[in-house]
Design a protein that fits this description.
Layout lengths: L4 H4 L2 E5 L5 E6 H9 L3 E7 L2 E5 L1 H14 L6 E3 L4 E3 L3 E4 L14 H7 L16 E5 L14 E5 H7 L22 H7 L22
Parallel strand pairs: 1-7
Antiparallel strand pairs: 1-2, 3-4, 3-7, 5-6, 8-9
């Protein structure tokens, strides 16, 4: 394929056979699954779910290229071009998604939107650190409700103290997110609007790999 790397690494929602979201995968992985007949493409059109195998999707892509090319991202090869799918469904996988959002740097920075929870400024990920609200030296644990993003300056100022001891104020009280913070950000983009059809945050969450 001659597609640019950003297209191949952009996001596709992966469903199990029961149409329940499992995780987010790359376009490259999604197209490979469909080409190997391990998955099918799901397209939400006029409120209905339509399923396509690889060859059918090539025909759909040709029609969309002729009539609405600006509405899609495209993978291009020497022989054809194909519209980037947004949702694919595994054909023989019934397991249910995991229900808890992992506490890791990626999810934490996404929850706090790369914003220092003390000074309120936004920073690149490389300029942020993880601060324990109640320091570990005082018995604080590494849990969703005790860790926040902090810039280097604020983290150094706070040191091994609580915000009250350091005369600093948290902008937002840290809590465990009900669903993936990274997913929330993606749902704000028009290209991923179809994902909303498959997400029920009250009962389960998407685990990012």
């Amino acid at each position: 394929m001659t597609a640019e790397t950003p297209i191949l690494s952009s996001s596709v929602l992966l469903l199990n056979r029961l149409y329940m979201a499992l995780r987010i995968i790359s376009v490259k992985r999604a197209v490979t699954l469909v080409y190997r007949e391990l998955a099918e493409i799901v397209s939400v059109e006029d409120g209905q779910y339509l399923s396509y195998d690889f060859n059918d999707w090539l025909e759909v892509s040709a029609a969309r290229a002729a009539f609405e090319p600006e509405k899609h991202d495209w993978l291009r090869t020497v022989r054809f071009q194909i519209a980037v799918p947004r949702v694919v469904r595994l054909l023989d996988y019934d397991k249910l998604p995991k229900a808890r959002v992992k506490l890791n740097r990626r999810n934490l920075f996404a929850r706090d939107r790369n914003r220092c929870q003390y000074c309120g400024r936004r920073f690149p990920t490389s300029d942020l650190s993880i601060d324990h609200v109640v320091p570990r030296s005082q018995g604080g644990k590494t849990t969703w409700d005790n860790v926040v993003c902090a810039c280097t300056r604020c983290n150094v100022r706070k040191g091994g103290r609580t915000p009250e001891q350091a005369h600093m104020r948290l902008i937002t009280r840290p809590v465990r997110p009900r669903h993936s913070p990274v997913l929330t950000i993606k749902l704000g983009e028009a290209r991923y609007a179809s994902w909303k059809q498959f997400l029920d945050f009250a009962y389960w969450n998407v685990e990012l790999k």
